[in-house]
TrEMBL record:
Protein name per Swiss-Prot or TrEMBL: DNA primase
Taxonomic classification: Bacteria, Pseudomonadati, Pseudomonadota, Alphaproteobacteria, Rhodobacterales
Catalytic reaction equation(s): ssDNA + n NTP = ssDNA/pppN(pN)n-1 hybrid + (n-1) diphosphate
Keywords linked to the UniProt accession: Coiled coil, DNA replication, DNA-binding, DNA-directed RNA polymerase, Magnesium, Metal-binding, Nucleotidyltransferase, Primosome, Transcription, Transferase, Zinc, Zinc-finger
Family to which this protein belongs: Belongs to the DnaG primase family.
Length: 644
């Protein structure tokens, strides 16, 4: 159904988000301020004891600082209640007293048709479930018993059986008055080419119903009982209900389990999913007889930011992993990737759990490998790099793979990790240095000097390997916000989204945003959560002497300095990303377009970095002093880095 312009805006205006969310959570009254529409609760999407789930009624927006779930009332109903978009809209409209727009007659007709087909599928499922309990299903029951599939598991996954015979299901459904076109439209039977009655799609197969996220039976999967059958597994044909490339087995239950914090596991087939769920890994799904498609990958990322792809450790499993890597690379985003669980060769999840137990599976899941490792394995496994040409071939293939990553930040991190792995592969063959190394002319090069104590205690050491400029500006942003709590509300959205590359700064940023909504002393609340990180930050020399930190009463100066530091940090990182992206495109000499992009990136950074000294002479002097001091420290640190 298409909605008229303005309908959703009116709906959101009439909806109080806290009323919708309040049905699923218990508010933390100590942190919440209901009068201002500022509410906190333990997150309903992952298990936690602290209240890190924030609802802002004024903005109609929620955000979890733990699992990063975010959205409005519609997305909350979709995720928490497993509703479709239109179901969520209809629910909110009904509660708000709004009349839903009249449906398009053709769209309503199609919806009615799908409802009828879903009803036919439920009738077919009841037939298959009954057949499993008859004499005709004895062999199927024996097979399930040998696979140690309990009756409880069979009931949970609604497993059935299609006996031998060409028209068993057809005759049963027709006897219940179901129209022929509905049976054919549901994909349960096929027309005969010999002028006879249509024949059943599934015959002599164990039946696994496939449900959509709403719980409707949309298709069946059938496992052949005859070992000589050409197709061991057979799925329903695609219908108005069923699109194989956009569906997942066990989608609805897995979505609920993943929302509660369980790892999302993508296995290869029905029995793998059933075995994993039986062992307590309830957020398990499977594609339906094909390699994972782009649409299925997007579905997986809606369920979890980092699905675990579980593959057999044989050649076919590794081949499937490499195909998936090629599909996923262009789609990667920050917080959206894949990890891989490689099983021992010759074992599937069912085998592993039965032979080695649940704990063995849990250890493999905990040791899941990042995708970059599988990429490296694909390009290096079984190959010998004993010549410059072979090494160059490896470099070329890896460059081509990394260039497919659209996100410049992720592309840069992949490049750094590949460089590390490459050094491990080729650097390990270098002879270890023994004492001083000889130089030309028989002269000896003295052993490298150890870092001086002053260097170890310098700002570079405190930066923990992060870019010095990033470290300095991150520290200044946090220190200003901590010294001037009134700045936090004004700059809250920027403080929520700015990337803190130093781990200590990231902990401080999180504690700062949480403490800003708590009662009591801001600095004390932050210190209670991060311990020595706060003292270390405020003890940095460039922080102690900074004008907005020394002048704790000058809120205007603090706001102007904080805005400037945020802008400079954003501009530097934007320029960095633009330059990295442009450099990826360089093949030989730079053309005019690339030169222009690089110059524009430099100019953007220069504009953001200029102090607006004419705004206020007194404040301009302080801001200029702060900027000059930061630049001096950056330049000095860069020189020290080259020296040591």
């Amino acid at each position: 159904m298409s909605l008229p312009p303005g309908f959703l805006d009116e709906l959101r205006t009439r909806t109080t988000l806290s009323h919708v969310v309040g049905r699923k959570v218990t508010w933390d009254n100590r942190k919440s301020n209901q009068a201002k529409g500022d509410l906190w609760a333990p997150c309903p999407f992952h298990q936690e004891k602290t209240a890190s789930f924030h609802v802002d009624d004024r903005k109609g927006y929620y955000y979890c600082f733990g699992c990063h779930a975010k959205g409005d009332a519609i997305s909350f109903l979709k995720d928490a209640e497993n509703m479709s978009f239109m179901e969520a809209v209809e629910t909110l409209a009904r509660e708000a007293g709004m009349q839903m727009p009249a449906a398009d007659p053709k769209a309503a007709e199609r919806a009615d048709r799908r409802t009828e087909l879903a009803g036919v599928m439920e009738e077919a499922l009841r037939h298959y479930r009954l057949q499993l309990k008859t004499a005709a299903g004895a062999a199927a029951r024996d097979y399930l018993a040998r696979r140690k599939l309990s009756e409880a598991a069979q009931d949970r996954f609604e497993i059935g059986f299609a006996p031998e015979g060409w028209q068993g299901l057809w005759d049963a459904l027709r006897a219940r008055g179901i129209a022929e076109d509905l049976i054919l439209g549901a994909g349960l039977a096929k027309p005969s080419t010999k002028g006879k009655a249509p024949y059943d799609v599934f015959r002599n197969r164990i039946i696994f119903p496939i449900r959509d996220p709403r719980g409707r039976c949309i298709a069946f999967g059938g496992r052949a009982m005859d070992p000589n059958d050409n197709a061991k597994y057979l799925n329903s044909p695609e219908t108005e209900l069923f699109d194989k490339g956009r569906s997942l087995y066990n989608h609805g239950p897995a979505r609920e389990a993943a929302g509660k914090g369980q790892p999302l596991i993508v296995a290869e087939g029905y029995m793998d999913v059933i075995a994993l769920v039986g062992a307590g890994f309830e957020a398990a799904v499977a594609p339906l007889g094909t390699a994972i498609t782009e649409d299925q990958l997007r579905l997986l990322w809606r369920l979890s930011p980092e699905p675990l792809i579980m593959l057999d450790g044989d050649t076919a499993g590794i081949r499937a992993a490499t195909r998936l890597i090629d599909l996923a690379l262009p789609m990667l985003e920050a917080g959206q990737s894949l990890r891989f669980v490689i099983l021992p060769e010759g074992m599937d999840p069912d085998d592993l759990i039965k032979l080695r137990g649940r704990e063995a599976m849990a250890k493999l899941i905990d040791a899941a490998q990042p995708m970059v490792n599988l990429l490296w394995q694909r390009e290096t496994e079984g190959k010998v790099f004993d010549s410059p040409e072979r090494k160059a071939t490896l470099d070329k293939s890896l460059r081509e793979a990394i260039k497919r990553i659209a996100d410049p930040s992720i592309r840069a991190h992949y490049g750094e990790e590949i460089k590390r792995l490459r050094w491990e592969l080729f650097g390990s063959n270098r002879p270890a240095a023994r004492g001083p190394a000889p130089m030309r002319g028989g002269k000896w090069k003295p052993a490298p000097q150890q870092p001086l104590p002053a260097t170890k205690a310098s700002l570079l050491a405190a930066a923990s390997g992060a870019e010095v400029e990033d470290f300095l500006r991150e520290a200044m942003i946090l220190a200003i916000a901590i010294t001037h709590p009134t700045c936090i509300q004004r700059f809250e959205s920027q403080l929520e989204t700015v990337e803190m590359r130093d781990a200590g700064h990231e902990r401080l940023r999180h504690a700062l945003l949480v403490a800003a909504h708590e009662t009591g002393d801001l600095r004390g609340n932050i210190a209670a959560n991060v311990g020595p990180d706060l003292e270390k930050l405020m003890g940095l020399a460039h922080v102690r002497t900074a004008p907005p930190v020394r002048n704790a009463d000058n809120a205007d100066l603090a706001a102007m300095c904080l805005a400037e530091e945020l802008a400079k940090l954003e501009a530097r990182r934007g320029a960095e990303a633009e330059v990295a992206e442009a450099m990826e495109d360089l093949t030989g000499l730079a053309d005019e377009g690339l030169t222009w992009r690089l110059s524009q990136a430099a100019e953007a950074r220069h504009r953001a970095g200029r102090s607006k000294l004419d705004d206020d002479s007194d404040m301009g002097e302080d801001r200029a002093a702060l900027s000059a001091e930061l630049q001096r420290l950056i330049d000095t640190a860069a020189w020290e880095k080259k020296k040591h």
